[in-house]
């Protein structure tokens, strides 16, 4: 037998009151639904009284009004969800009271409370969060793909490992394994030849958990996922199984790494959110950008430099974040490549997923800091045919293939380079705060880990 759902209905004053009452009564007469409250969200055309008591009497259910009938009472909606311990919010309003932007803002508020937001032809469900962790944990999520989640994950993991917290990374990806795959990055030597062996066996050896193992030298677990909802949920993933494996292994602190804009479906103690400064402001400020921002305890804005983002855009993103989530620590950063091997005095072909527009900055950094000569670059790690063309163009004029461990880095970049007799060196990307006005990134990560551990211990009590 289905349990009774406590419903809050959102109504406006553009509907004639008897029509609104008929709709609410329809829900209230369904056996498994109990309409516990109504929230008036605006509109005055057919509103004959703005007296809450009179309106409640006419509706037969308590109606809650905000301070201004012309403004959407977002905070009041959240307040009523908590007051009545509601299970669902049903929107019975319409244009002109709500437009798309306002509806998405309501959706973000409702989903942040962990309950569904429904309307006549839409349903937004809260994130799936499996409550399975037996160890302290955090998740790393992002507002999109190619904004540096794995690079930040590797950086954070190394910092956590250096402090002796014993991290384990559980990553999900679109090319992940059918069954969670354990990679002992703390025990095995991950060479280009080793990764080629894995690739020849049918393993996606450039998957995020392999990159984490290579860059951080810690225990990692690889999972798969398919599909990504507007708010970040996935259609299919075996990450819950990966989390249970992490519970059984020796890792003491577990890091769950998202994929694209998809969010790890595991309940964790704290969250790190990444925002790409190269993304449109529209997507950060609207739709489910605010929802993702609300999830972050530490928010790292990446790619904060010209030509990907102006100083004005970076500042605007920071202000948006602070308005939505004033409690979060916010750090604006850039990425700089760091070879994992010696490339001094060598001629290099650099393969990256970074956009073409930032190529000159990265090349200059490599040549000045590591004493190499970058003969050519390719931004096509995620496009195999174009990558092969670029490799063929430069392969006779270089000593080293320097490549990020992404996309076709193994089955094309590593394979073709080894067959041509080139040395292959993998490349990390290090997040660096854009100036000294921001909190220290490493210290902020460790502080968040300590808070996660405290939260885990307190929850256990």
From TrEMBL:
Keywords, comma-separated and alphabetical = ATP-binding, Cytoplasm, Ligase, Nucleotide-binding
> Where found in the cell?
Cytoplasm
Q: Which reaction does it catalyse?
A: (2R)-2,3-bisphosphoglycerate + ATP + H(+) = cyclic (2R)-2,3-bisphosphoglycerate + ADP + phosphate
Q: Which InterPro entries does the annotation name?
A: Cyc_diphosphoglycerate_synth
Kindly list the GO CC terms recorded for this protein.
cytoplasm
Look up the signal peptide feature and give its range: none
| Entry similarity comment | Belongs to the cyclic 2,3-diphosphoglycerate synthetase family.
Q: What is this protein called?
A: Cyclic 2,3-diphosphoglycerate synthetase
Originating organism: Methanobrevibacter curvatus
